[in-house]
Amino acid sequence: MTTQTAAQTAGQDAGPAVKNMAIAKAINESLRTALEADPKVLVMGEDVGKLGGVFRVTDGLQKDFGEDRVIDTPLAESGIVGTAIGLALRGYRPVVEIQFDGFVFPAYDQIVTQLAKMHARSLGKVKLPVVVRIPYGGGIGAVEHHSESPEALFAHVAGLKVVSPSNASDAYWMMQQAIQSDDPVIFFEPKRRYWDKAEVNPEAIPGPLHKARVVREGTDLTLAAYGPMVKLCQEVADAAAEEGRALEVLDLRSVSPLDFDSIQTSVEKTRRLIVVHEAPVFFGSGAEIAARITERCFYHLEAPVLRVGGYHAPYPPARLEEEYLPGLDRVLDAVDRSLAY
Amino acid sequence: MTVESTAARKPRRSAAGKTGTTGSKAAGTTGTRRATAKKPTDASPELVQLLTPEGKRVKNAEYDPFVADITADELRGLYRDMVLTRRFDAEATSLQRQGELGLWASLLGQEAAQIGSGRATREDDYVFPTYREHGVAWCRGVDPTNLLGMFRGVNNGGWDPNSNNFHLYTIVIGSQTLHATGYAMGIAKDGADSAVIAYFGDGASSQGDVAEAFTFSAVYNAPVVFFCQNNQWAISEPTEKQTRVPLYQRAQGFGFPGVRVDGNDVLGCLAVTKWALERARRGEGPTLVEAYTYRMGAHTTSDDPTRYRHDDERVAWEAKDPIARLRGYLESETDTNEGFFAELEAESEALGRRVREAVRAMPDPDHFAIFENAYADGHALVDEERAQFAAYQASFADVDEEEGK
Questions:
Q1: In chain A, N or C: fewer CB atoms in 10 Å?
Q2: What is the CA radius of gyration of chain B?
Q3: In the predicted model, is pLDDT for residue A186 greater than 80?
């Protein structure tokens, strides 16, 4: 409720600058703003030009900025990232699109062995301001390799930053900040939320890229999530409220670095934590959060940190994904288990 | 369906086995059991050569113009580069044997390929090496002692790539060909007229990244020269394990020219690379140069080539030594006197000494270097772990203090 009021107020103050738009459109506007502001910014990927991307996130950009700035590439993910590294070495700031999560692996070598390490190897002489956009996650009924959440694989690698917005305003601003960052940023876009609308104020002053945000205040338990699971956690908090439980919802926004301070602050208040993500629980970002929060907040915790996420199994066929993905009931069940301690 | 697919498989089977099929002819086999790429001889028409192993100048209408105005002094310069590079390389190999370096990748035998191509580059060109391009680094003005830091284990790079337009060594095979292509795409976007040269080996030609680099460079007409030093061996695997067609012919399938040059002929390498770089600068796109050469030493100091290749092969290639070849030409066709060679010998020894002393004087990095430059903009976790590390280190200082050290 507080957030909504703030947004409404901002809307009234800022006038016509504030627009209601979907996440996909917010990213599009953000890329447009970056392309306009800096001639060194490039957009690259398969189908990003004439088609505007398979999700139309880059719609109209090639028409307005030309084939030299918005580049349709050969169908070769390693080539897309590898040449983006070369362009960055030449002084460009490429924003590359990997069409779907499961297709990033041909480029994984370039991202992990080259993109992540070149700044350190050069003792800081080389900067690689490359943004790798990856539409990720399930819930859209896709075929295999189109629904995965590989963020932990990237967060594990030093040299990369990993972020994931959950709403249109963050999508707009976090993309601006990712492009301005001198570090490579893996930008996970919650594809099932691409069409969710929210107000975006391009004249606002954004918060730091890697700071978590309290989406909803509560006293009984903290739900921490990012990307597509933030909305679910808000729904969980709504449902729990009907049962008289006040859940706090944190939108982590950044997976690497992770804002442990904000999680700690929240857990010291609520004394209970559940991490929710679509990725498999095993070795996932929830495991890292659970371990560190246990270290930091051992004497505050009333219950072990619980995790709700995917299973240690290949992402299932679409007809089974509702079973695989965390849903309202699974998270509520975890809430019950936590509160039972 | 079954009948069709069996029929479709048949020719492929016989191409790999018996002789006389279209497949095996295209692959250049000579009726041996295993299909292999044809080995070029020195007289092979597909091998560009301006200087024979005996040091005799061969006329070549196409590439002579690129070295037509070369002076005796410049030839002596190429000779000096090769001798000093070999001396540096030998010193590094010794230093590894003495335990001063953890590993060394020798360029022995590849001096002509590296000096010829390296001297063809212009100051504003950009070079993307593998980890064996010590001769090219020399041509770019990188202090050779800087090349040793990563092999000694004090850093993972050791020089500022932009000081000499010589990128850091790349260990993952073939990755740098894509960086080179992207950089070249950037040059084209900038409207500049410089070019890029990417080095890789015959083994790397099997990597997907190299194929993708060929695709991207062709599609975007990028000003890049792919310089493949085919030194016959990818650790223990011969070139025949990488390809069934001569490597330079790969280029044709991607839509740009490929040339095979005698990689032990410094003049040939200089001319062909100049031609390719000028093409790139004129906006005519990429070229693949296959420098046909031989790695006389081991892959690295950890390798044992006696397990996979015969001495007679090495002996045959020694007769094509790039340095002896140019010396023969200098002695018979120019006014180079003994004094030049004697002076160079002294200079070589001085270089060896300098390298030896520099390596031994290399300080171990500061402990906190672990955390430095992991990120350009910083990272909360790195900051946290650095602080933990500092506290841990400081705990030893307390013990030292208590013990009165």
A1: N
A2: 24
A3: yes
Give dist(CA B75, CA B271) in Å, integer.
13
- Amino acid identity of B351? L
Contact A224, A289 (CB under 8 A): yes
Report the pLDDT averaged over residues A206-228.
Answer: 98
Closest chain B CA to residue A182: B376
Nearest CB partner across the interface for B376, out of A68, A182, A210: A182
pLDDT band at B6 (very low <50, low <70, confident <90, very high): very low
Q: Is A126 on the interface with B (CB under 8 A)?
A: yes
Interior CA angle at B61 toward B59 and B64, to 5°?
70
Backbone angles phi, psi at B168, to 5 degrees: -65, 155
Question: Does the beta-carbon distance from A76 to B181 stay under 8 Å?
Answer: no
Query: Looking at the partner chain, which of A109, A125, A183 has a beta carbon nearest the beta carbon of B161?
Result: A125
CB of A293 less than 8 A from some CB of B: no
Per the prediction, chain A carries an average pLDDT of 95
CB B267 within 8 A of CB B50: yes
Interchain pair A85, B179: CB under 8 A: yes
The residue to which tokens 């959950």 are assigned: A166
Across the interface, do B381 and A257 touch by the CB < 8 Å criterion?
Answer: yes
Look at B381 and A79 and tell me if their CB atoms are within 8 Å.
no
- With a cut of 60, say whether residue B3 has pLDDT above it: no
Residues written for chain B: 405
- What does DSSP say about strands A254-256 and B47-48: parallel, antiparallel, or unpaired? unpaired
Helices (H), B98-160: 111-120, 134-139, 149-152
Higher per-residue confidence, B87 vs B14: B87
For residue A81, what is the nearest residue in chain B, using CA coordinates?
Answer: B178
Q: Is the dihedral of CA B104, B110, B114, B115 positive or negative?
A: positive
DSSP at A112: I
Q: What is the pLDDT of residue B405?
A: 59
Query: Is A270 in a helix, a strand, or coil?
Result: helix
Between CA A221 and CA A211 the distance in angstroms is: 20
- List the structure tokens of A290: 């659970």
CA B209 to CA B199: how far, in whole Å? Answer: 13
Q: What is residue B158's predicted lDDT score, i.e. its pLDDT? A: 84
> What is the Cα–Cα distance from B43 to A226, expressed in whole angstroms?
66
Q: Residue length, chain A?
A: 341
Average pLDDT of span A156-170:
98
Q: Does the complex come out with an ipTM higher than 0.95?
A: no
Does the beta-carbon distance from B372 to A123 stay under 8 Å?
Answer: yes
Q: What is the Cα–Cα distance from A231 to B183, expressed in whole angstroms?
A: 41
Say if CB B293 and CB B263 are below 8 A apart. Answer: yes
At B293 the pLDDT is 97
* Among candidate residues A277, A271, A185, the one with its CA nearest the CA of residue A231: A277
Looking at residue A17, its pLDDT comes to: 87
Give the confidence band of B24 by pLDDT, cuts at 50, 70, 90: very low
CA-nearest residue to A161 within chain B is B379
Residue B394 has pLDDT above 90, yes or no: yes
Cα–Cα distance measured from residue B205 to residue B199, given in angstroms and rounded to the nearest whole number: 11
Average pLDDT over residues B300-324: 94
> Number of Cβ pairs closer than 8 Å across A and B?
143
